[in-house]
């Protein structure tokens, strides 16, 4: 913690310091309750990126051309890299990274018609949307666009977290995740310019509610706790509304509707 942070924290209770926008810069300065929630946030991101990377790997061989194959390969590689960046931060809190990486089958998926709650499934902290399988190239592209737009919104929120090393990591990751979404939009444009509009619209109907669920419930009590710790700033419903507006506009640009 810097001298300025130490002085600020010493002049008021830590809870007030964090609630007023204070930041923490090292694991040893993170209070136990904040530490638990911070690790939970980081594990959700890591697990989601690993599951997203593993799930999209199958799409590489479904790509209709070299350009699409390169885009899919880039997404698979960079999502794994993003997971590693945050896992390094978790290691500073004592996480055994080697054991963590082997803890789950990141490519595991449930049947497409399974109804699952927007919560952890077992010990796996991935967002619920990453438990569903991709079904063909068009399906993968639509999911990448919708979830990519959601990730852009979620990363803007994560970049404001009170733990400075994580906020810095998220700011570094955000431009690459935005590019993943843009690659998806480019692919969607090629699909809808051909004969794939009906298939794309069907994929939108499937993925829309599942991506929306990744923002969590409205009026969340947990959000209030996290906001008091400086780990959240905008409520779930506000983030979801921003995603909905961006996603509707992106889909409309390709002749699709939510």
How would you describe what is shown here?
It is a single chain. With 258 residues, the protein is mainly α. It is built from ten helices and no strands. It has helices spanning 3-10, 14-19, 32-60, 66-91, 97-101, 137-158, 164-193, 197-212, 221-228, 236-252. α3 runs antiparallel to α4 and α4 (66-91) packs antiparallel against α7. The chain is globular. The N and C termini lie far apart (46 Å). The model has no long low-confidence stretch (mean pLDDT 92).
* Average of pLDDT: 92
Determine the N-to-C terminus distance: 46 Å
* Oligomer status: single chain
Helix content: 55-70%
How many distinct beta strands? 0
Silhouette: globular
What is the element string, with H for helices and E for strands?
A: HHHHHHHHHH
Rg, Å, rounded: 19 Å
Q: Proportion of β residues?
A: under 5%
Task: List the total number of helices.
Answer: 10
Unreliable stretches: none
Largest sheet features: none
Which secondary-structure class do the elements indicate? mainly alpha
Please give the structural blueprint.
Layout: H1 3-10, H2 14-19, H3 32-60, H4 66-91, H5 97-101, H6 137-158, H7 164-193, H8 197-212, H9 221-228, H10 236-252
Helix pairs in contact: 3-4, 4-7, 6-7, 6-8, 6-10
């Amino acid at each position: 913690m810097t001298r300025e942070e130490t002085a600020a924290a010493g002049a008021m209770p830590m809870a007030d310091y964090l609630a007023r926008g204070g930041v923490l810069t090292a694991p040893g300065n993170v209070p136990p309750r904040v530490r638990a929630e911070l690790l939970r946030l980081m594990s959700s991101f890591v697990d989601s990126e690993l599951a997203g990377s593993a799930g999209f790997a199958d799409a590489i061989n479904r790509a209709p051309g070299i350009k699409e194959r390169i885009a899919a390969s880039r997404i698979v590689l960079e999502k794994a890299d993003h997971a590693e960046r945050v896992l390094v931060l978790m290691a500073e809190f004592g996480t055994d990274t080697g054991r963590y990486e082997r803890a789950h089958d990141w490519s595991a998926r449930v049947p497409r018609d399974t109804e699952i709650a927007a919560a952890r499934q077992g010990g796996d902290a991935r967002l619920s949307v990453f438990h569903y399988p991709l079904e063909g190239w068009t399906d993968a592209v639509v999911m990448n666009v919708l979830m990519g737009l959601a990730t852009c919104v979620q990363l803007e929120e994560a970049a404001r977290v009170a733990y400075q090393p994580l906020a810095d990591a998220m700011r570094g990751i955000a431009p690459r995740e935005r590019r993943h979404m843009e690659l998806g939009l480019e692919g969607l444009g090629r699909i809808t310019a051909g004969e794939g509009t009906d298939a794309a619209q069907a994929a939108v109907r499937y993925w829309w509610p599942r991506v929306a669920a990744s923002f969590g419930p409205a009026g969340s009590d947990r959000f209030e706790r996290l906001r008091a710790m400086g780990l959240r700033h905008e409520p779930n419903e506000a983030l979801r509304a921003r995603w909905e507006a961006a996603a509707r506009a992106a889909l409309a640009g390709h002749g699709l509707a939510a």
